[in-house]
Structure formats: C-alpha cells, structure tokens
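From the thread on structure requests for the teaching lab: each student submitted one protein with a one-line request. Submission from student K.M.:

"Model Cell wall-binding protein from Clostridium neonatale, tokens only."
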Amino acid sequence: MRNKLIKTIALTLALSSLGAVGASASGQAQWKLINNNWYYYDSNGQMKTGWIYDKGNWYYCYYNGQMAKNTTIDGYYLNSNGAWTLNRQATSDNAIVQSDLKGNGSIRYDINSTENDYKAQEILNANTNSVVLNSEYESMLFTACEDLAQGKNTIANLKSNCIGKVVGSKYRITNIVYLSKVFESSKELVLDYNPVNDKVNKIKESELAAYTPKSTYKYDKYLVFTGDSFTNDWEAMRVVIELEAL
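Reply posted by the TA:
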C-alpha cells in the first residue's frame, strides 16, 4: 500500500502541474458535513471512499464514506482534521512528551522483581530493538513499558495518547502491542537447574515471543516479575511500540 500511495502521490503532483485534476478543474467536488462527520463527493456528485487528495493533503474515507481522523491507516497518521500532509516533518507540536505517558491505572501489588527476574529480562532484551534513541527517549519509552506491566497505565490509554506522536524527530508511533502471560514455577528441580535460564526459555517458547511486529522499526521490551508470597507463579509481559521512519 505504501508504494502504491507514493506512486499515486507522484501521479497526482504531475497531473496538478498540468492543471488536470478533476476536482480542481470542475470546482464541483466538495466535502459535506453530515451528522458531524465529513464525506467527500466528486464532481459528479458521487460519494468517494479510500484515499482522497484535496488541496495539498491526503485524506481517507471508510467504506461508508465517513472521513477518518485521529487514527493510522496503512501506516499513515491522520490528524484531528483528517489530513496527512505531503512531506510532513516532525515538529514540537506532535512530539511525544511525558504527559502523553501519564497513567490512569492502579499499581499492582501482587508482583515484584527479583534479581533473577532482572537477569532474565536483560537476556531477553539484549537484541529486541530496531531503533536507536537518545537517553531521554529511551527512558521515556522504557518507563511507559514498565507502567503498563505494573498496572500504572492501561494499553487503551497509552494507545490513545501516543499513536501518531513523534519520537526523537526520527520515528512516528503507529501501534502499541501489550502481551502478558502467567507461568507456573518448575515443580521438580534438576541438578543443574538455573532459574534465570528456566524463565528465559519458557518465555521464548510462549506466545509472547511468537508475536511478530508489523513494522520494521520497533521499541520492544520484555518485563519479568515474581508473584506474591502466596503463589509460586511468575509473570512476564512484552510491550512492542511499533514505529515508522520519518
């Protein structure tokens, strides 16, 4: 879809230079506001769907004609006005900030991290990221992952606040995925039992590791916790922040 859209953009610009864009030439194509939603009608009065180029911006209308806004379509973020602007650059207006990461959940007191948990976490996170961020943004995103795992924030709130935001003037967040699983501690311990390796191997064999990000660029973290004193169970989470390059 991205290559197709880029080709369409090039064709549109070429036609514009020739003065051959139908909507501009006829002057009859227009947006109509119906029940607080925008719909686009061409010069023949037909409601259009899919990608629409109008006055230097791209818009997207769903199958029913309603214009999309505040969402990501085919990897392109559409703002509150529904527009994805050609050659849009990262600005301070859409850069991610601490307030975007503010949680609305309740901290979990049934889990905590032990030394073995941290060691397992370090092994799992050794080569997960495909982006390089400075210390400020690295800290922000890791804290966001921790807050999700510890219940301080919810995935719905984080996605609502962060999708479409720019990280480090290099990447735009397109999706956030949160996975979690409770594991049972090994009942029988063998002579060479290693609790760190046991956790790492179980996580690698689980659905947490099976998830494949849909974006080439990702900030990907595993978090490992031990259950409370009343159970031998332990828990692992994976947070994948998917991005696109600007």
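TA comment: The CA atoms of residues 137 and 168 lie 7 Å apart. The first strand starts at residue 30 and ends at 34.
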